[in-house]
Specification:
Blueprint: H1 12-15, H2 30-34, H3 54-59, H4 61-77
EC number: 2.4.2.17
Protein name: ATP phosphoribosyltransferase
InterPro entries: ATP_PRibTrfase_cat (IPR013820), ATP_PRibTrfase_CS (IPR018198), ATP_PRibTrfase_HisG (IPR001348)
Length: 78
Amino acid sequence: MDIIKLYGSMELAPLVGLSDAIVDLVSTGGTLKADNLQAVEHILDISSRLVVNKAALKTKYELIQNIIQAFADTRTSD
């Protein structure tokens, strides 16, 4: 087995013969379906985190709150 680090569209690797399988992040599965691929094993649940240092939280509080709200709005629209 060889492990190759790729950047970009991982799902293309099996289609062009570069690999037999890939490990990739899957959210809805739409890309898998579009490329005629299937998930064979669930490895791990993941989540995203917004990390802000204390100085930025004080000096850019409104901007950070807007970013948080934008994420929240996106999440509730799913």
